[in-house]
Task: inverse folding
């Protein structure tokens, strides 16, 4: 029987309905499908009543819980005809709604408006979700795209502020000798860039030791700081001193 506004519309999760269709196609369901069958098929207790109701309203089950001719036709459909058979079933089941909306072209707002007269009113959001999920599985409705935050390139050079934030911060020593800050005045005497000199200043004193984890962090940070300070590229050509004399 088609979904109409004068009777409760289906609002089970599309995944529950599609899982049962797939189960019936792959291994078959019992001659009578009731709450116990759905529970053994993995449908949660809270979803069993609405799933049974939805499968009956959508003409997959008869009133006494037996697979309908439509359900058997979907089960027997060859793989290359599966989506087409789903579309035929849905076009008949949702014939009333399809007079107002086209799932192939309309968006969720238009579909939501088409369901505003269906009952129960408080479940209209779930009706729309089921409708969209089933028509998407049938290849009629395009897959909805989720908004994504652009991913940061893996090899992107971080800003100097980010480099400083990644530098390992000194931790209270345990059995290891304490770290010393800039023991040899690196940077002032050598003319190294401040970021690189500051990182080198966190090295333990000569002959000292440090934990493996801190050493690994230092090496990783050093590579980032080095690439930032001295970008890889061809150095400018130097003039031949012999020619200039």
Result:
């Amino acid at each position: 029987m088609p979904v109409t506004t004068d009777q409760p519309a289906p609002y089970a999760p599309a995944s529950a309905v599609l899982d049962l269709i797939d189960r019936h196609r792959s291994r078959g369901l019992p001659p009578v499908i009731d709450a116990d069958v759905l529970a053994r098929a993995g449908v949660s207790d809270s979803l069993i009543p609405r799933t049974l109701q939805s499968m009956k309203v959508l003409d997959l089950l008869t009133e006494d819980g037996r697979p309908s001719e439509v359900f058997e036709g979907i089960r027997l459909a060859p793989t290359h005809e599966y989506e087409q058979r789903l579309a035929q079933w849905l076009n008949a089941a949702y014939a009333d709604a399809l007079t107002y909306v086209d799932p192939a072209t309309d968006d969720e707002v238009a579909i939501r408006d088409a369901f505003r007269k269906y009952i129960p009113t408080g479940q209209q959001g779930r009706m729309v979700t089921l409708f969209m999920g089933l028509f998407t599985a049938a290849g009629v409705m395009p897959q909805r795209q989720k908004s994504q935050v652009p991913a940061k390139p893996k090899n992107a050079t971080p800003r100097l502020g980010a480099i400083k934030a990644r530098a390992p911060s000194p931790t209270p020593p345990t059995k290891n000798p304490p770290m010393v800050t800039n023991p040899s005045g690196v940077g002032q005497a050598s003319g190294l860039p401040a970021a690189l000199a500051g990182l080198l200043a966190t090295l333990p004193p000569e002959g000292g030791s440090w934990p493996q984890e801190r050493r690994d962090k230092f090496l990783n940070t050093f590579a980032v700081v080095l690439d930032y300070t001295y970008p890889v590229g061809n150095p400018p050509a130097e003039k031949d001193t012999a020619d200039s004399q």
About this structure: Residues 33 and 232 are 68 Å apart (CA to CA).
